[in-house]
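Subject: mismatched residue count in predicted assembly?

I count 737 residues in my input, but I want to confirm that the predicted structure covers every chain. Input:
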Amino acid sequence: MTHAQENTSSTIASDWPTLLKDNRRTGGREDAAARAPKKVRWQARLGSSIRSAPVLGNGLLYVTTVGGTVFAIEGNTGRTRWKFQIKDQIHSTPSFWKNLLLFGSDSGAVYAVDADLGVKVWEASANGEVWTSPVTAAGVVYFGSADARLYAVEAETGRQKWAQEFGGRIYSTAFAATDAIYFGCGDGNVYCVEATSGKAMWHTSTGNGIDSSPALAGDTLLIGSEDFFFYALDSKNGAVKWKYETGLGIASSPVVAGQLVVIGSKDGYLYALEIPTGRLVWKAHVGGVVTAPPVIADDVVCIQSWGTLAFEISTGKEAWRAGVGGAVQSAPVLTKDAMYLASLDGDVYALE
Amino acid sequence: MDRRSFVRNACLGSASLYFHGFAHGAQSDIPSPKAPHIETRGLSQPMPSPLGMPGLFPGRVVELSSSEAIVRNRVSQPLIKEMLERGMKELTGENSAQAAWAKFVEPKDIVGIKINPSGAPACCSSPEIVREIVTGVQSVGVPAGNIIVYDRYAYEIDIGSYQALVPANVKVMGVQDAFTGTAGYDMAIYCDANFFGEWETRSYMASVVARGVTKIINVPTMKDHSAAGVTGCLKNLGYGTFNNVARSHRAPYSFTDPLIGVMCSVEPLRSKAVLHIMDGMRQVWHGGPLTQVQDFIYPAGMLYVGTDPVAMDTLELEAIEKKRRDEGAPSVWEHDPASITSNDHEFFHDPKKNLFYRRPGHIASAGKLGLGVADRAQIDHRRIA
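Triage response: the counts match. Full output below for your records.
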């Protein structure tokens, strides 16, 4: 199976257009094997709950904690390179733009921190908490907030370009394509807005609020809803190409591998569907609730659900499971020689 | 101890409470260990609020039901709106929903909505109901920013996706971020009892309840509970407000009776809990409170509305018992040693098995503490189809 065309937008090198960087939710790593882990390289106790996913850049693992601390941890040793502390809680998964680490906070502030030094470069603000992960395209950072607004700020300075209000809270991390921004909303709509203004180009209603973050594969926008359905929409006009019903609501975010999309449901299953048709290719029982985004490595799809599990991407057969990484929002970072996991109770693991 | 002396003790500092002599229903076949001494310390305040439990309408419970309220496991927002408005008007005797809400909240209030996400995602307080409560509270003039949807565990709230699903600017918070930690609790307000020799004998009240909100609207679910018998208004409030509560039951014994009622009696929880809206859209008749097994979750499509948690839980217990009888499951009062298992899988999949000797007598015990009416004959049960 190939993994061509992870993102359909004509991205530039510094772009980070979606949750965990790309449609495979890689979190910044370059390549990944995701073999079954054999031993612990290191374990770090950060002293605060972690309800976000770590990201990797230049050999450093960046982790945000509910206690308001950002940690930059050396991937090889587990040694903390720097810490950055704010007064508020952090639930936002961080992202990169050039050498800046971007993340939101519960006060509504969004921070850009020098990824090497751990020093604040700029701060932008929303009127409600920001749990979404900032995404960047063509030098503009986009993030949604609980105040029902989507914000666009300059990546260099944090200066606001626009803010647009919608009908509900925004906990869905946007997908930033070349000219359009896509996201789900608590009012049950999927929105496509102009990148330059935030004005809605189209919206499509689902049957309940949306917590899931979209992926864009070709001209198909993929997203789950709390109405139990997984949607494939025409990215040009929002028309429903197909939808697939799961057993409970969907807060998980889809991953894309070639013509296959994988999504988790609160019913405890991962579903692999053909993007062109919506046909179910396989369905795998995870065992616990699935609200986190899956992550794709070479031949497996990994998911955290009170532990970490891997399933063969071609068949859905369970490849391995590890009893660490107890979390319901986090996602592993997979490299060719290590796996990094964050857990709800504040532990971070590097497994070999 | 009568209600007055209990309230005085709970309000004015440290109280020494003994529960000898409480009637414990029909569970007499297996002797349970005697409940230990429970000491409470509440927040001092001059006088308990008349809105506090049992509230403005002691003994009155409005039951609403609709087969269309939950279809294919989806709750209907329009029907919830209609049912809740009718329920509020019937409860209060007011002609408009807004006037009904104004009986309980004022524009200056900080309103807490106490949800029950502990069974999420299979059975938890429906976001559709929470949305309509927010609408009702806002209709009185309370701004969205002064409404707090809360429960003890943030991760359970996350699983329910409440953050994304409630109206904009409403605050959603978990008292604690992970499994342990006391940062979200008020060390001056507690219940202290040694049940099984545990090293930490105190349970502390959540700070958001003690110092944050001025009114609480309680949104429990209708569930069987492996230790308490049922989890309804009282259990959702008591065990959802204080920490370190699981220590009250160690298989196969449980001291949820009397601890649940005692906790609900501690000020300021008692005075702030002014309204209870029980979510019976889904009804768990076995495996509660955490089951995810759909075989034991019945789409009842019901709502109870009232100010008296004891009367509401009495009716809930009756409903769960009926459903269990209909399904051939033993009564929650049963204390047959052969029913006890330590195997979680067996418990979750066999309604004849349980982890504890359930103690549904906590409802009657709470009635004796003056929290409401437990006598079925005295309950004003109003059914609206």
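Residues 59-384 of chain B form one domain. Marking this ticket as 'not a bug'.
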